[in-house]
Amino acid sequence: MDLLVGEPSLELLTVVTSTICNLLLEFSPAKEPMLDSGAVEMLCELTKHSDPALRLNGSWALMNMAFQAEQKVKSKIIDTLGTDRIFQLLSDADERVIMKTLGLLRNLLSNTLHIENIMSEHSSEVLRAVNLVLDGPHPPEVKEQALIIISNITAGARDKDYVMEDENIIKKIREFLVVSDNKLQMGAVFVVRNLMEKGGRQKMLRESGILENLEQLLHMTPRDSQFYEE
Fold this sequence. Notes:
Layout: H1 10-23, H2 31-36, H3 39-46, H4 52-66, H5 71-81, H6 83-90, H7 95-108, H8 112-135, H9 140-156, H10 167-176, H11 182-196, H12 202-207, H13 210-220
Helix pairs in contact: 1-4, 3-4, 3-5, 4-7, 6-8, 7-9, 8-9, 9-11, 10-11, 10-13
């Protein structure tokens, strides 16, 4: 794949990379051939481009590539992109780039076996990434994506309590349960629900103040609310 060879115009690059985003959807027959022709390397290079539209398309295409992908594809994305670049993308000035990078992380951490494998090698980097977003001045819809990633980890990582051992994440979950934003509340509820499915956590959740805030939320919420649908 020689898209970046020479001096193609920004307009051409933007159009072509937008097309690649669509071709890399999970159901596309073009996905496997593109993977074999250097798509991962090219897209990772695009995420370093000075033009925000190309950084967006690069991160977007990687997100699509990781969707329901095999472990070897996910590992190649992580190894080629690198965790340092992920942190840079999560600090991008363009909020759309941040959202697509979070979508990439969500798709990387979307299968129990894959979650365990990735977290066993990159847990500190993954947790640092979600904390970066949770602590940042981002709108609720951005932090909601970080909560989805955390929820995936709590559901899929069976060997270790990565989330329960992260004091900052637990603090944020406790706070989000009682904020006046539905997206953050729902995201926090899903995390707590997954945490409670594993035995032995009730005491820790009680001591952390999470159950107290969950009870407060439920007390203030009508019985016909979506919080009770699950």
